[in-house]
Amino acid sequence: MGSPPNGDVVLCPATRRVPPSQLTITRNTSNALSPYPDCLQVAHINSRSLLWHIDEARRIFTPLPTHAFLISESWLKPNLSSMLVSLSGYKVLRNDRINKGVGGGGVALYVRDNIKHRILSSSPSEYAGKLEFIITELTIPPNKVLLAVVYRPFTSTAIFFFLGDFNINLLSNTNEANKLLTTLSDFKNIDTDKLNSDAALTPWHEINVIDILEEKISRFSQMITDLYSRTVPLITREVTKPPAPWLTNYIVQLMIKRDNAYSR
Prior knowledge:
Layout: H1 26-33, E1 42-46, H2 50-61, E2 68-72, E3 90-95, E4 107-112, E5 116-122, E6 132-140, E7 143-151, H3 175-178, E8 180-185, H4 192-201, H5 213-231, E9 234-239, H6 249-263
Parallel strand pairs: 1-2
Antiparallel strand pairs: 2-4, 3-4, 5-6, 6-7, 8-9
Helix pairs in contact: 4-5
């Protein structure tokens, strides 16, 4: 992985969220990140078996200027060497489930090896249906960055809050507040013709020869996501205000019914 100009990494107010790892979106993701070559680039993927998808991750992230990327549902076990999921230029931090007979879960975090870092906290490795996480501190002089990856199992009943004074007013018109960006999939402009043609060429029969149910689900999900990544364009939008706390799902549904009534 190449470093930014002069080897420096700077923090920028723009925040980018890279979609899940897909071979076919590497170019789009690279283009989305290219206006910010000197900024800290962080990505997250839900891998549903990092070992199963490590070749894809290597092909995708090697060309990208990513300084750290976070993995949920790594599905790794302590007896698997980190060399099996290594990426050139990165150090991998892991928090695996150690329970025998309990699959899934686990989190990992890749940090570029020229960035000083330390683990501040991590969840117990014994699976107990609770949050699984790694919290790290990256040192990027003169700043320190708090970076965390979290996985909440379906069986978890955990309710969690992040409270504090971040000294950022998203309601203000300052540049710092207005440069919060997010990259999303634009399903309104999906290429339906290409979706249908690619779906017809997808080797769905491969699922039938897989014996393990979790692997069947993982392979099927990967095929579906691959189809979407080839046919759904990406859009970047600026987040200027937090969602209104009073705008509940019930009110949203009422608003939809109102709009439908007006359109009749």
